[in-house]
Structure prediction request, 390 residues.
Amino acid sequence: MSTRLTKMAENREKLIASARRAFAQQGYAAASMDSLTAEAGLTRGALYHNFGDKRGLLAAVVDQIDSEMAAYAKSVGAKAGDAWLGLLAEGAAYIEKALDPEVRRIVLLDGPSVLGDPSQWPSQNKCLQSTRNTIEQLIKDGTLKPVDPEAAAMLLNGAALNAALWIASSANPQAMLPKTLEAFNLLASGFLTKD
Amino acid sequence: MSTRLTKMAENREKLIASARRAFAQQGYAAASMDSLTAEAGLTRGALYHNFGDKRGLLAAVVDQIDSEMAAYAKSVGAKAGDAWLGLLAEGAAYIEKALDPEVRRIVLLDGPSVLGDPSQWPSQNKCLQSTRNTIEQLIKDGTLKPVDPEAAAMLLNGAALNAALWIASSANPQAMLPKTLEAFNLLASGFLTKD
DNA sequence: GGTTTAACATACGAGGCGTATGTATAATAT
DNA sequence: ATATTATACATACGCCTCGTATGTTAAACC
Prediction:
């Protein structure tokens, strides 16, 4: 039961969980590796062995959060009536999830600075690929105008994430959310062949 | 001629210019304040006196770049036939300017991480206010559907900046630019009352 | 059961930031 | 005009953090 691989996997999880807290509360730059490893009952040795460096640890944390977001958005989108409404629902789900301070700080603010353009991340790439497929299908059946599917997916995704950042730092987030979702849906309807 | 105020202003400019190079080439975190001040013929003493801390220096650099971008976008937008085409032209100008590696690295990647949500920056705020006014006018004259002007301006701005990041890190930026601009215009047309 | 391997801990060195103090020059007052 | 003051900037110091190099212990394998 206490085989090496399972123990290593447990330690990885501990470190990711601890880093997630530290990065969320203090930001990536201010978070000390000594502190967060100690909080996990380990040392920097474990960290460097498992993730290479501080950047690798952030990549693992971002991947975890991003995957959670994508899974939730997809599940919400699947419940919608058709593919088009599903796309809108996914966008709305993304915006709501990105209102979480943890997501904002780690994924939206520090992530791009340390890891580069989000569309190149494995997690985001999977998400983009998924919405791209949906868009291609909607173009085929005539729901959407013939537009570059990659560019369209990226624009919708980017607008959603940026919107979350804006809502969160606004004076009254609760009031801005519905207005923004309305504007987002209107914007997305620009791709429709007809109203 | 060599009054204290003018000399101080000159030194401020020197430091901003040097920091702009250093932040663009090495990134904010990796840029050393000793190096960039030495390159400007000064020391960290001048830096801390003028800008408070490293963060203050970045804020000054971001403000300069962002203001240049906004001025350019506005000048391009003013040349367009009407207010609606002007809005699209401003978006396109923003995307093109943001393809500059310096802009990407400093304003789009490091800026949000260190300074927080861009829509709260003085420079971006001015830009958003401007497009918001244009949108309000376009709603009044019936060109655009009744949508929250602030949210709409933010969505267009965010989509444009995110698009630039995506284009720049794509395999073939030159080929993606026109496709993306087409998709962006289509997206924006979602706000129009009619095609 | 001995050997090897690897996951993790410990120890070390380098570099950067922020502050506290020092200095020289321009502005001001008498 | 000279003495005083204020300030823009330089210098010096200490603390913290990261990355690596080495050491140690326990599981895996023959």
